[in-house]
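Hello forum,

I keep getting stuck at the same step: I have a sequence, I want structure tokens, and every attempt I make locally crashes halfway through. Rather than fight my setup again tonight, could one of you with a working pipeline run this one for me? It's a single chain of 296 residues.
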Amino acid sequence: MRENLAMHAAQPLRRAPDLAGRFGAHVVQALIDEVTLAPKPGLVDIRSRGAHRDLDWSLMCVSALALQPTFVELAHAGIDIEPMRALRERIGAIGRDGEARMLDATGGVNTHRGAIWALGLLVTAAAREPSELDPRVVASRAGSIARVQDRHAPAITGNKGDQACLDYNVGGARGQARAGFPHVVDIALPELMRSRARGDSETAARLNALLAVMATLDDTCVLARGGRDALAEMQHGARCVLERGGAAALAGRRELKTLDRRLVELHVSPGGAADLLAAALFLDRLQGEADRPSNA
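Reply #2:
Ran it on my machine without issues. Output:
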């Protein structure tokens, strides 16, 4: 499945519709790369359900693939719609349709609601100005879109993440997006680059990027399930892994296993951090797009 998706994403670009298709494939590949990454503490990966009972790797992949038309449509909107309010309201409608598509594909299980929001904004922003794909610029552009009010969005969603924002006075996914994804561009991507530069494997580098986000993020998925005590344990545990050399070091891997066991015991899963890792992997993948000749 991953090989077929990668082959699809490698098809050459010649027109704007192909650009949208390619960007949509980049998003889906980032989602599959994120869920496949292992061992992730408390999260679904290719070896484990993590702290979840209703999710597994196969279902997450089914969901990601089902969402590819949604992300392609979001990229098209970024290309085609110039007025900012019209764009914001159009992608809001596309995102809500995508959520329905996700739930239909998974039998009602929420697999990627947060990812539709975060990566939907980023793919729209990237497609809006494909000649400038620097991660910080794309994230800032996405933040500008997120700050526009969608008059058609429901005032109350009933989502656990939104309720956690109210209960614990944190910004959540909306705050992260409106600020230009600081945990992606200031934390996840720099850690990914540092880990690669010192010779860590790609798996270790991605795990370290995830842990760097977990160490500081007010993850509403964790808050909704375990409150502030669970959040504090997660953040402390992630810092311990990094302080002991990260996922590439023996001591770091031991701490990572300890953190994984503890999050499973607490029945908490840092889904917000996972979404931001996927966002970082998407922006990282776009750098290959930026290096591609304009006539390729």
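The longest helix spans residues 220-243. If your local run keeps crashing, start a new thread with the error log.
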